[in-house]
């Protein structure tokens, strides 16, 4: 098995006509390796955990070279101006800038900084939805809400996301796992 090949345990049930379970099966499923992952910090400039993680990963890359991780990882400081000023954002919330309409809107002199930056990041990590887009983007945030360590994901069917959650749950006492529904 290649070093980066993903393995998932697939589980399914066979139901009879009344919906009763007649058979349960499990099998290993081999998935394609992740080709590219992105770790983002500082999407909100006053949330410093992700900034520190990105800085530490970049330090490790300098020390260990590109083989620091088993797959290629791009590290990104998403909103460097807001990080520098330790503010949530400069002109507008960057979390609201990655929808299709904003990513394709024309840039003018009056375009908010975060919209310009989101379009730059979309070129770097995407384009969103294209075959060249990163396989996984991990965007790190802090919150003052009492939610502990929380993973917010966009799908319940992605095996890698589910395995990351399982890995974290095995190592920390409380990990929330929330599915976020978005339009795009
Ligand atoms: Zn945030």
Automatic annotation (TrEMBL):
Gene3D superfamilies: Zn peptidases. InterPro entries: AspA/AstE_fam (IPR050178), AstE_AspA_cat (IPR055438). GO terms for cellular component: cytosol. Residues 35-175 form the Succinylglutamate desuccinylase/Aspartoacylase catalytic domain. Keywords: Cytoplasm, Hydrolase, Metal-binding, Zinc. Its main location: cytoplasm. It is found in: Cytoplasm. Its cofactor is Zn(2+). GO terms for molecular function: aminoacylase activity; hydrolase activity, acting on ester bonds; metal ion binding. This is N-acyl-aromatic-L-amino acid amidohydrolase (Carboxylate-forming) B-like protein. It comes from Labeo rohita (Indian major carp).
């Amino acid at each position: 098995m290649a070093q980066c090949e993903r393995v998932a345990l697939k589980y399914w049930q066979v139901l009879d006509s009344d919906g009763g379970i007649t058979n349960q099966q499990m099998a290993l499923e081999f998935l394609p390796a992740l080709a590219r992952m992105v770790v983002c910090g500082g999407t909100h400039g006053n949330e410093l955990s992700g900034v520190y993680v990105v800085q530490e990963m970049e330090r490790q890359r300098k020390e260990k070279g590109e083989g620091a991780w088993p797959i290629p990882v791009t590290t990104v400081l998403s909103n460097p101006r807001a990080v520098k000023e330790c503010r949530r954002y400069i002109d507008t919330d960057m979390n609201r800038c990655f929808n299709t309409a904003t990513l394709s809107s024309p840039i003018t002199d009056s375009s908010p900084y975060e919209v310009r930056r989101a379009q730059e990041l979309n070129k770097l990590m995407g384009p969103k939805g294209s075959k060249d887009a990163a396989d996984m983007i991990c965007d790190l945030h802090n919150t003052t809400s009492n939610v502990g360590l929380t993973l917010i994901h966009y799908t319940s069917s992605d095996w890698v996301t589910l395995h990351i959650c399982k890995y974290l749950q095995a190592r920390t006492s409380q990990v929330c796992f929330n599915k976020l529904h978005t339009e795009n």
